[in-house]
Amino acid sequence: MSGPRRRRRGTPDRGLALLAALALGLYLVFLVLPLLLSLRSSFTNENPLRATNDFIGLRNYTEMAGDDQLRASLKVTLLLAFGVTVAANALGVGFAILLNRTSLSYRVMRTVAFLPQVLSGVIVGFVWQTILTQNGVLNTALMTVGILDEPYPWLGSPNAALLCIGVVVAWVLSGFTTVVYLAALQSIPLELHDMASLDGVRGSQRFRTVTWPMIAPGTTISVTISLITVLKLYDVIAVLTAGGPANSTQSTALYIVKLAFTSDRVGYASAVAMLLLALSALVALTVTGALRRREVSL
Amino acid sequence: MTTVAPSGGTRERTRLASGIGAVPPARTGTRSTARPRRFGGRLRVLVAAAVTLLFVAPIYLMLVNAFKPQDDILANPIAPPWPPTLENITQALTRPDNLIPLGLRNSLIVAVVSVALLVPLGSAFSFYISRKQGRTKAAILVAFAAGLMIPPQVTLLPTIQILTWLGLDHSYPGLILANLGGGYLSFAVFVYVGFMRSVPDEIIQAARLDGASGLRVWWQIVMPLVRPATATVVIFLTLWIWNDFLNPLFILGPLQGQTITTGLYLTIGQYSVDYGQLFGIMFLAGILPVIGYLTVQKQFVAGLTSGATK
Question: Domain ABC transmembrane type-1: where (chain A) (predicted)?
Answer without folding.
Answer: 74-287
